[in-house]
Specification:
The complex is a heterotrimer of chains A (395), B (385) and C (261). In chain A, strand 8, helix 5 and strand 9 form a beta-alpha-beta unit. In chain A, helix 8 runs parallel beside helix 11. Chain A has 395 residues and is α/β, with parallel strands linked by helices. Chain B is built from eleven helices and ten strands. Chain B has a four-stranded mixed β-sheet with strand order 1-4-5-8. Chain B has a four-stranded antiparallel β-sheet with strand order 2-3-7-6, covered by helices on one side. In chain B, strands 9-10 form a two-stranded antiparallel sheet. The longest helix of chain B has 37 residues. Chain C is an alpha/beta fold and 261 residues long. Chain C is built from seven helices and 15 strands. Classes of the chains: A alpha/beta (395), B alpha+beta (385), C alpha/beta (261). Chains A and C meet through helix 6, helix 7, strand 11, strand 13 and strand 14 of A and helix 3, helix 4, strand 9, strand 10 and strand 11 of C.
Chain lengths: 395, 385, 261
Amino acid sequence: MQVISNTCTGCEICVSSCPFGAIEMRDGKAFITESCTLCGACIEACEFKAIERTGEEAAAAAKDLSAFNGVWVFAEQHKGGISSVTLELLGEGRKLADKRQTKLSAVFIGHGIKDKARDLIAHGADIVYLADDPALKDFNDDSYSAVLTTLATLHKPEIILAGATAIGRSFIPKVAAGLYAGLTADCTVLDIDPGTGNLLQTRPAFGGNIMATIVSPNHRPQMATVRHKVMKPAPRDDARTGDIIEVKFTQTGAVRTRVIQTVEELSETVNICEANIIVAGGRGMGGVKNFHLLEELAKVLGGAVAATRGAVDEGWIPYSHQVGQTGKTVCPKLYIACGISGAIQHVAGMQSSDVIVAINKDPDAPIFSVATYGIVGDVLEVLPVMIRKFKELRG
Amino acid sequence: MDYLLTEDQIMIRDLARQIAVEKIVPVRAELDEQNKFPTDIMKAMAQADLFGIYIPEEYGGLGKKSFELYIAIEEISKACLGVSTSYAANALGTYPILLHGSDAQKKKYLPDIASGKNLAAFGLTEANAGSDASGVQTTAKLEGNEYVLNGTKQWITNGGEAQVYTVIAITDKSRGARGASCFIVEKGTPGFTFGKKENKMGIRASSTTELIFNNCRIPRENLIAREGLGFIVAMKTLDCSRAGVGAQGVGVAQGAIDECIKFAKGRVQFGQPITSFQAIQHMLADMQTQTEAARALVYAVARMMDSGAKDFSRASAMAKLFATDTGMKVTTDAVQIMGGSGYMKEYPVEKMMRDAKILQIYEGTNQIQRNVIALDMIKEATRQK
Amino acid sequence: MHIIVLVKQVPDTSEVKINRETNTLIRDGVPSIINPFDMFAIEEALRLREQHGGKVTAITMGPPQAADALKEAVAMGVDEVVLFSDRAFAGADTWATSYTLAQGIKKLGSYDLVIAGKQAIDGDTAQVGPETADMLGIPFIAYIKKIKAIADGKMTVERMMDDGYDVVESSLPALITVVKEINQPRLPSLKGKMKAKNLKVTTLTAKDINADENMLGLKGSPTKVVRIFPPAPRGQREILSGTIEQQVGQVVKKLKEQALV
């Protein structure tokens, strides 16, 4: 990024346009500091066309990109069952593969999962790379990334997608590091740039206040983790055909990490990341004594109970229920925010919900700016009414 | 107000404030209600080096002086006087060693007090020795290389929680006040036990118990200074700690003002926030002005003490007297402004008001402070003749 | 034990505001803090040092002012700090950042454990930990909520998963990222603050860490940000009025119409 000094009028518009605070005024002209990320916001902002990209980008060592072909998804499974995020990845992967007129492959890693490989084809995969081995039974960063890295080195896919789950976010970066591939975390929109054929990866940044579109122009594969419940799951079509290619797993070197024990924490409510309906409470609930109202509403609706950091810090509910920047990011179909003011950190974790109902006695509470429907009133009075009405609805 | 604090003093104030806000405020009501000693908070304060502020660097402290200690006391007092009493009483229990202890005693006890590993307590008051300190009946008798202690101390802050106790006992009954001596007694010494925890009106986060000595044998080297100097040690100790009680008064007053104005801004009566009424405005103005005056006096006395002044009994008595009377008055006014809400446990000011009362009583009642002040004035006037 | 903590300086996002007209961050007066998740990493390192002895080194990559974050770490009790700062590092994505940190760590000599927060609150990628581990050639375990044991070149940890946790054993050295549940970070100490006040932070450049300049900063980053734009506005927004009974009635009706309940 450089400023064409003769053209710059010193109007300072670019200074305020820079999302990264990377432009300063020096001697009456714009000056781009080392905080610049090359996002190009200033190029668009400058009315005098006084800012341009340098040849740096083009000069960066380009790989032979044409050697890479095909869209891959990492088909996450849990105890042999295909995870719901995998179906979403197959749905999205299918679209991208069609746009690129290429094949969609699924990489399926685990043990005792052979009979499930067909399901991946029914949901849109053309090829399934199946690594079925006792050593792969438990998730292990080393072995899972070894399988995927080896396959990717051999077959050179141009795109690899994985779920932004605990597993995906743990080992996919390791694969990207080894392949010198660009990786974008937690994408909510994927598309193909019609001109360059690059994968356009869009994700929320700065707590969801800004969306950023990211590409990896000179590196392949292009890798992304995708947020759960954002993409549409692929429909099942048992008539689809495809190839299942079994991959042998060989342990190279010593086993450095191993799972000794897996503990499932039974919660009376559903995992909030999976829930379609969430009833969430904040400090406005006034105390743990009122949380039964949330539980009751969640029960009536068949949803899960979540909370803000404030409520968790008060000890009203365990951390596993926390939504927001330091908790979980959720995108249910319906999110009912009860006595939640709407701090930016909380909103970051729930604003992708389809419909948001906010209940707050303060009509100026920031939560109302993200709410689809806002109810102004004391949450402790509103909730019993709501529970009653939903109960009536359900008969 | 700019209090002209140094960079290090600001650092101490800010860290103490951070502890007060993050660790103390969230639990103060619970500590009060459950009469619970704040063990976790004391640990956090130890980790932050707050216990070593006034202890010389050679003994593991920060080498600062009274002013820096008072700044920390004030900040903690804004949040909870119960916690600040536990904290300040630690300094009270340490002063006899710091001021009059031998190098060996300092080396043995001060580093663990500075690090917060050990807590200290001071034992002077007895059933028959409150304002009249000469009524002490606890005795210490030298037998060979050991002193044998017998008697009971009453209302001792940090009793049961402290590891190190500095205790005043009579070594020679015939000499009256000159027959008292000061000793170091460690928790766990056979013959040394604690009475039940007192159930107090306020400062309920602090522990107050009896210290019971029943043929308690301590090594001879635990005598502080010399036999017969017990009351001098005690008076010098109280001279140093008294202005710190004043700092508690300033802190609780400011804490109450901060809570009260926050409430008053949001409280609407007759269609407007009550802060728009002059009756409230004038009360707030008086509360803050009185608090600033108290603070100015406490800071001035602290700076005088730290500059090496020899005799500051009167000064520290005035700081204690004025600042704690202010603390009581301002907390009472804060409850008044907040009305019914102020009286309820949902808000912290009722606790502040209950807590503040002790400041006018302990470490010398405010009546005794007036005696100290007046006698010193008269003494000076006599000298000048 | 020698424990290395990866620290990132981030804007305190609770105070970041967005200018809705230009759709950019208002950065004026926004304070910088240590990434909150890294505070858990620092605390865990200090606790391990208290139990097992040794030293804790905190490192960061960033502009010269990132030294402030390292000073905060010193105030909490970290023994040594190193800042990797060079114009060549600017504009790095997670890959190039990880490369820089890995080169830097190699320069620090032997170590037993590297700890980082699970992610940074400004980027939320959670990628620098695992990518750095890969480049160092050491095992990586994410989302640690408890270190159960460390002895004889091995450690046992509890890793949070979406529906529970795994008990995982790993050889050392290793790199772990930690979650909020692992501990409660301590406050700084006065002695630490005084030490930090007078500290001159060791700064290493690209040359000092023997980095390949083609892999640094913007040049070495596979990903590029090509566009920044406001999130799509949410559908129609409706603040209801009327009695509670009426408001709730309307919401229930609307949700029913949309087949959400």
